[in-house]
Amino acid sequence: MPTIADTIARILAVNGVHRIFGLPGGEIAEIMAACRRLGLAFVLTRHENAACIMAGVTGELTRRPGVVLATVGPGATNLVNGAANAFLERAPLLVISAQVATSVAPALPHQRLDLEALFRPITKWSHTLTGKDTASTVQRALDIAVEGRPGPVYLALPEDVARLEEPPLDPRIGPYQAPTAVTPAGSDIDRAARMIAAARRPLAMVGVGVDPVATRPSLLRWLDAAQIPVAVTPKAKGLVAEDHPLFTATCTGMAGDRLFAELVREADLLIGVGFDPTEAIRPFYLERPFLSIAEYGVAEPAFVPALELIGGAGDTLEALAANPQGRHAWPPDTLPRFRQRLAAFLTPSRDCTELGLSPARVVGRLRDLTPRDAILTVDTGAHKLLVGQVWRSYLPQTYLVSHGLSTMGQALPAALAAKLARPDRAVVAVTGDGGLAMVLSELETASRLRLPVLVVVLCDQSLHLIRLHQERKGFQPAGVDFGPIDFAGVAPGLGCRGVRTRTWPDFDAAVVAALTADRPTVIEVPVDPADYNRML
């Protein structure tokens, strides 16, 4: 008779899970063995947080839950940041950790924590498996992760429960079948059409709250029919190609946000297509009437859109595109003038100094040297605000960033997950020296898995975004500067190629070589933080 561990593995396999990320522990040996018997690969990382981020990014790319597995106690607690990241990044994720055996838990406090309670505030559902109805419980967890607003769920598996026997899997339990997308009421669509028609200067903002691949064709048809200027959030970069004639900017906290705020003040209606406040740095969306078109509700206690159309965004946009009435009166020079001002703002005053290269120029050169469909992962830090505006995205799911939680150390694990999911694509991670130091050991993971990602690390020996915050508040910078790390020298010790570039020809050559290399490459780039000081 199968064990509980066998049942969990079987449900994962039935739902199309191919790999599980994590770190082993004696308490999860049963479930690891059960997964291995069914051909589910276990991807070993060097830290549970990196494993959780990789699983979350897998969920973002596949629209099905990524799965992470960890042991009891510290193994589980190390997953907290990754779970919180998935919660605010709207990524479907199944988090499974061991728990102290129920037979000894009442008497043995060693590694005993209330894990179900720990994960409850940062998941859609938190539950401890008991050995009863395991198959339906795990299936329910997977379903919850993707229904409505995507996010993480948590299951605790006590060590002795994993070994219990359970009746064979109910044949009625099968792969997840997504419910038919709810279409907003026709009266609401008519009301939305009237709102758009009455607006003189509507502005669309595309965000994380839609299926990026499925929604994109309808979105582009609607934009072309309505001729409404559009911005994207960082999580939605690529849904509207950045050479589209109606594209304005990447919004919500990126470099040049002040200029975008001025554009918002000229608008008289904001149309959110998947716009989710989780990505906003400031509540600018409160300043104008707001129409929301998304797969889930985006209202917050102090933010209630004038109208929410919840359901299949593609069908809603098709209905609106079929009858594009309006008398929009954006001055004809508004978009060209805005783009010119933004481009001037993002133009570095110097290409390089004795301190290093211009980070804005590094990103621009990197974009010119990489394929149009390259996947970029971006870490949190001062550079993220530049990259979000300077890097041009043309296709959905080619720009991966932590923006809801904005956690550091995300870019490298995200790049590894992206390369596993899209092995035919060039994958580039842009990170700072502070962020890479947090996950440096995962370079060994990249090398072991033979994932030829390119990691560009911008080095200024400072947590520069925090420095800017301190200075803006009138404080003397403190606790933000650190010594140099020889990333180019460390990389070979972890199985990767390492290059340090101080000139533009060297940088170009290093990028070109890395894109055809058979193993990971780390390009260390000393940068002058003057761009951050001026543009942020």
How do the strands line up in the largest sheet? 2-1-3-4-6-5
Low-confidence stretches are none
Distance between the termini: 61 Å
Q: Report the top-level CATH class of the largest domain.
A: Alpha Beta
Mass-distribution shape: globular
Instruction: Report the β-strand fraction as a percent range.
Output: 15-25%
Sketch the major β-sheet.
Answer: 6 strands, parallel
Helix count, per DSSP?
22
The CATH architecture of the largest domain can be named as: 3-Layer(aba) Sandwich
In brief:
By secondary structure, the protein is an alpha/beta fold. The chain has three domains: 4-163, Rossmann fold; 186-338, 3-Layer(aba) Sandwich (Rossmann fold); 346-535, Rossmann fold (3-Layer(aba) Sandwich).
Features:
18 strands; Rossmann fold; 6-stranded parallel beta sheet; globular; 3 domains
Can you give a write-up of this model?
The protein is of the alpha/beta class and 536 residues long. It folds into 3 domains: 4-163, Rossmann fold (3-Layer(aba) Sandwich); 186-338, TPP-binding domain (Rossmann fold, 3-Layer(aba) Sandwich); 346-535, Thiamin diphosphate (ThDP)-binding fold, Pyr/PP domains (Rossmann fold, 3-Layer(aba) Sandwich), CATH 3.40.50.970. 39% of the residues lie in helices and 16% in strands. The protein has 22 helices and 18 strands. The chain has helices at residues 4-14, 29-37, 48-62, 74-77, 80-89, 115-119, 134-146, 159-163, 186-198, 212-226, 257-266, 313-321, 334-345, 359-369, 382-390, 411-421, 433-438, 442-448, 464-472, 487-493, 504-514, 530-535; strands at residues 19-22, 41-44, 66-70, 93-99, 125-128, 152-158, 202-206, 230-232, 247-250, 269-273, 290-294, 307-310, 375-378, 399-401, 427-432, 454-459, 497-500, 521-526. The longest helix is centred in the first third of the chain and has 15 residues, at 48-62. The chain is globular. The termini are far apart.
